Amino acid sequence: MSESLPLSVLELATVGSGQSSADALAATTRVAQAADRLGYTRLWVAEHHNMPAVASTSPPVLIAHLAAVTERIRLGSGGVMLPNHAPLVVAEQFAILEALHPGRIDLGIGRAPGTDQQTAIALRRDPAALSADDFPQHLIDLLGLFGDPRVEGGLAERFRATPAAGSSPQVVLLGSSGFSAQLAGHLGLPFAFAHHFGGPNTLTAVQLYRDTFRPSPALQEPYTIVTANVLAAETDEEARRLALPGQLMRLALRLNRPRPVPGVEEAQADPERAAAEAMPSNAIVGDVGSAVARLHQLAADTGADELMLSASTHGVEERLRSLELVAEAWGLAGQGRPAA
């Protein structure tokens, strides 16, 4: 039954109107600690650059902080954009995280830039490196650096991610297309599909992943994580009101006019409110009963092994309350709400 399906959290460290980067990172810290207490399986942070609404520019730095202030939950990247970095650098960063917090570190890998082209050039320093053609080989090099016995040659012949590894982070391939689904399947890696992007290809991609899956030292059977935008509140009306800031932020990204997440009252008066509300969306927004029902349906439709929830709104209290409501209704084995 889907009630036993693990739930996890995708946290973007969003910067709201009137908030600083420090405010956003403090909010993400509270979300991680709440997710840990409530029984969520993992929390991932994403790599984005040069965006006024996202403070998570360096996942390994943020993961190190969050792992140090939580106890049980797995922490990881959703994801590190591998074309932005040398595989050896990524391997060393996550090997250190795994050594500090063994058994709790995930390395979610993506092949998109996570930013605009000019920023991508600044990160990579060479315009010729903007192509993702080398991504499969870089991913294989990364697996080799973590000791994957299937990998012969490449960087692993000369380098180690850390001198004496006791364990390795779990590598998960992220994607929103058939390319990543097939690559994850061929390499026998867990696959996380970005359903929260709103594209129409979720069912096709997850089935393609399962059809192409080959058992590996990392994984004997396919494992699919499906992400979703989820905002639950006490009533449908309140949930829709709280979701509007996130809708406006997504509209701004679509129009290439990135902005901080507006406040709830600010969003109500925004001149682009109607356009934001009219955008097609697969977000799950509503009272907790309807939100959980739609999560059950998403799990059934996709056959997901795990669902990962992202709550997009201005205030951290509203994000925390959404996680609490869903955790209680789903039956997560957490510790409940702290005493007042």
TrEMBL record:
Coiled coil: none annotated. GO terms for cellular component: cytosol. It holds the Pfam family Bac_luciferase. Residues 14-305 form the Luciferase-like domain. GO terms for molecular function: oxidoreductase activity, acting on paired donors, with incorporation or reduction of molecular oxygen. NCBIfam families: oxido_grp_1. To bacterial alkanal monooxygenase alpha and beta chains. This is LLM class flavin-dependent oxidoreductase.
